[in-house]
Amino acid sequence: MLPVERRQKILELLQTEGVVNGAQLAEIFGVNVATVRRDLRYLADHHGVVVTYGGASLAPESSQPVQGENALIEKEVTNLEAKRTIAQKAAVLVKNGESIALNAGSTVRLILDYLPANLTSLTVVTLGLNIAVSAASIPYVHLFIPGGHYRHSSQALVGPTAERALGDIHVDRAFLGASAIDMEAGWTHPAYAEAATNQMLMKIARKKYLVCDSSKFDRVAFARVCGLAEFDAFVVDDRFPAHYSEWARANDVEVI
């Protein structure tokens, strides 16, 4: 098991149990206690976990509920009309001959259904297996899949292999779906393993678009991806919260 996968599982245990024991973790994952200690120190530095004598716990001062992860099959039928509206808005931004990145999820996959009719060439980079299948059926699309470890719940590719592959490329636009957006916490994700690959998509894109419906705002999940000011634009539905609209205007982030 890769360190990134082991740390994600430790975070999931903390979410359900509240505390973990180092010796028990070493037994569960088949590693020594020193390795577990390094994992816990990493989680303390990057995710606010509190290292205790013999283990770790969640930070007691956390004031917002941590959002869990829904399976992709559930997401595909939730707020569908809003997602279609958002996908249409995002699709018209795509220009012929460009390269675009789509992370993983239900809203970004719908963008492929509404691409402009005049396109004859488009490079699509994606972390989502479901998105790759859809993109592969479009004759003019040049598809790039970074590889890596496959997560069943989200159909996303994650891990060092995916991160290395993404680090070698650049794209014109990244359309990034999210399940948890908060003005202070930024973009967060329920799965620690997906945070790093999403960060890479942000890094390699010239233009960065947050693509999500209004139900995703004022939510906080476990792993931080980035701050909201790193986006060039929010592509949203007609129920976009007014206080986020004001924030975007004050921070030079376009609302589409």
Features:
2 domains; Arc Repressor Mutant, subunit A; globular; 15 strands; 256 residues; seven-stranded parallel beta sheet; Rossmann fold
Give the overall silhouette.
globular
What Rg, in angstroms, do the CA atoms define? Answer: 19 Å
Q: State the total count of DSSP E strands.
A: 15
> What oligomeric arrangement do these chains adopt?
single chain
Helical fraction equals: 25-40%
Low-confidence runs of at least 5 consecutive residues: 61-66
**What's the pLDDT, averaged over the residues?**
89
SS class = alpha/beta
**Largest sheet, described in full?**
7 strands, parallel
Number of domains: 2
> Counting H and I runs of at least 4 residues, what is the number of helices?
10
Which helices and strands occur, and which strands form pairs?
Elements: H1 3-17, E1 19-21, H2 22-29, H3 33-47, E2 50-52, E3 55-57, H4 72-75, H5 80-91, E4 99-102, H6 106-111, E5 122-126, H7 129-136, E6 141-144, E7 149-151, E8 156-158, H8 160-166, E9 171-177, E10 180-182, E11 186-189, H9 192-204, E12 205-211, E13 223-226, E14 233-235, H10 242-250, E15 254-255
Parallel strand pairs: 4-5, 4-9, 5-6, 9-12, 12-14, 14-15
Antiparallel strand pairs: 1-3, 2-3, 7-8, 10-11, 11-13
Helix pairs in contact: 2-3
Describe the 3D structure:
- The protein is α/β, with parallel strands linked by helices.
- It has 2 domains: 3-57, Arc Repressor Mutant, subunit A (Orthogonal Bundle); 72-255, 3-Layer(aba) Sandwich (Rossmann fold), CATH 3.40.50.
- 38% of the residues lie in helices and 23% in strands.
- It contains 10 helices and 15 strands.
- The protein has helices at residues 3-17, 22-29, 33-47, 72-75, 80-91, 106-111, 129-136, 160-166, 192-204, 242-250; strands spanning 19-21, 50-52, 55-57, 99-102, 122-126, 141-144, 149-151, 156-158, 171-177, 180-182, 186-189, 205-211, 223-226, 233-235, 254-255.
- A 7-stranded parallel beta sheet has the order 6-5-4-9-12-14-15, with helices on both faces.
- Strand 10 and strand 11 (186-189) form a beta hairpin.
- The longest helix has 15 residues, at 3-17.
- The radius of gyration is 19 Å and the shape is globular.
